[in-house]
Amino acid sequence: MTAALLAGVAFGAGLFVLFRALFPARPGLAASLAAFDAANRRRDQDARVSLTSTTQKNNVGLRADLGAALARFYEARGWQQRNVRADLAILDKSFEAFLVTKFLLPAVALLFTPFLAVLGTLLGLPLAIPLWLGILFAALFFVLPDMQLRQEAGQRRKDFRHVVGAFLDLVAMNLAGGRGVPEALMMASQIGDGWALRRIREALANARITGHTPWQALGVLGDDVDIAELRDLSAALALVADDGAKVRQSLSARAASMRSRQLSDLEGKAGERSQSMLVAQLLFCAAFMIFLAYPAVVRVLGS
What we know:
Blueprint: H1 2-22, H2 29-40, H3 45-48, H4 51-76, H5 82-90, H6 95-111, H7 113-122, H8 128-176, H9 181-189, H10 195-210, H11 214-225, H12 228-240, H13 244-302
Helix pairs in contact: 1-6, 1-7, 4-6, 5-8, 6-8, 7-8, 8-9, 8-13, 10-11, 11-12, 12-13
């Protein structure tokens, strides 16, 4: 009984550590005020840093150091992880933080393997079963961040493509008003304040500072977040940037094509969901028929 209680306590403590690793606590009000005061008094910053701020900075530094070490390990072996980096770029997440989460979860699962072995011994199970369970959970936790990242990035890209379609219409309207291509792109990006338009606006602003053309900035952004529509838009603008009429017609045609494709995708998903609902109804009907026929079949077979 004591061993089972200790194993349960250790399991709960491990879950708490895992939760804290995935969702670190936000800094409190005292830590935020201390950081604000330290920024205003940089001359005597070392003498006035509070204990809370120091502890929090050390924790963040440990995670950052571990993430940087893992990133260097990947780079040394030539593992570029382009798809993962594109998914992280569209979600505004760092590659180092992703690697820390990806490797801490299996480590925590492996730490629980001895406790699973103790529980299996108390229940009379063979020792191989808890060990294989620990390895299975570690493998599952290793691929779980990739699955979650891919799902979130896929939904984010769908939203981005919707915004790109509206952005093309806005650019075409600005071109029809007599503006040039760079001015039309910048004015269209300033219409809304969503995250997608904000990314486009930042890319265009950085292109103006660095001396690149706006369509080159859109192409680089498309490569970073893996949006084919932005790459195609960059190539099209690079070809016909000097002819306003052709640009306007091309953008309008591309926007109409994107809306048609998105509508077809929505209709296809609606059809799939209708078919799945039909299958569920048929299964319910079959189960109900079996429920009605079961007493008669049992009586016939029993006689």
